[in-house]
Amino acid sequence: MTKVVTDKKLVAELLTRGVEKIYPSYENLEKKLLSGERIRLYCGYDPTAPSLHVGNAISINKLGQFQALGHEVIFLIGDFTGLIGDPTDKKAARKKMSREEVLANAANYMEQASAYLKFDGENPAKIMYNSEWNDKLAFRDLIELASNFTVQQMIQRDMFQERLKEEKPIYLHEFLYPLTQAYDSVVMDVDLEIGGNDQMFNMMCGRDLLRTLKNKEKFVMTMKLLADETGKKMGKTEGNVMSLNEGPNEMYGKAMSWPDGILVPAFELCTNISLNEVNEIKAKLSSSEVNPRDYKMKLAHEITRINHGQEAANKAQENFISTIQKKEVPVEMAEYKTTRDNYTLVDLLVETGLVKSKTEARQKIEEGAIKIKIEKADQDENSDMVVIKDIKKQIAFGDTVAVVIQKGKFNFVRVTR
Q1: What is the reported pTM?
Q2: 334-416 CATH
Q3: How many CB atoms lie within 10 A of CB 355?
């Protein structure tokens, strides 16, 4: 049997680090954990994209901290709830997805989550799919579950109020999302659910339903969201979201692009360095004793190390220093051997895989996001990369030894004939 750790300091850090609120209270959950009772907890992830992102990693990391203290962890893939689409914070209904799309998106979730959570060994996390029970619900069952909630409960949510004001539609299936998520807690009979603070409503619905149907109290832990000192969240809208399937160079570079104000929250939420060290970093940044860039490099290295390992993180840092800080072309990069003597730059971008389509290739060229360097036998190897904005640019492999192509800041490929 897995031993449960009841060290008071470890439990205190578990319940405070990155945590915004615990329902019904911190004290009640602390008492339960210090009693030595092994609890069952979970967090759910809807496969709305092919990769998890750093925001997901915050809750996965918290699951890993509970796992390290001996508790039973469930990593739930919402392959059923993903079909509905979580309406949280959405001013319009989500585009509905097919089961095939959802499962394809979730294909690598366990691999990505394994950087933070163990799925093997003495106390492995259990991976579950909520279609297992939701697909079996009859219409009669759905009506019975729905009778535990009111329209007033659902309509009071901010995003629905916004849609009413703007006369935008609210679809009935969106009301069913929190009900379906709530049913997950009942079926898995959990003691605790973890999620971002934007998930509080959905998680509290599960708390209410579990109490009603099983007379059981479920704890709810809301996590802080990754945001700077002004409250601006990381995300697709801001263009700074970090996917967990990004390569080491991209991951390191993305972290280096984050604003200085996000450094301290990111160390607390996205890493496992001690809180004492996090507080030291906060104090030094506040006193202007250090250049924020130095701690940003430490953060970028740590996040890359967690997801890709020490060696890859070291190389990503070296690559960043040489290509971004020193503006050099990296020594190591992807190699591609062509089959033809002549190309348009558009065709070459597609063939090397730097872009997915000719449309994207033309867009990147026009944006000034493509640079090239023609390497010839009699040419200085240290010549600069040149921005190309001509979508009709021709590349000829005659006396050319290689063509180095750069897309954005971090993507390089050396093309040879």
Answers
A1: 0.78
A2: 3.10.290.10
A3: 22
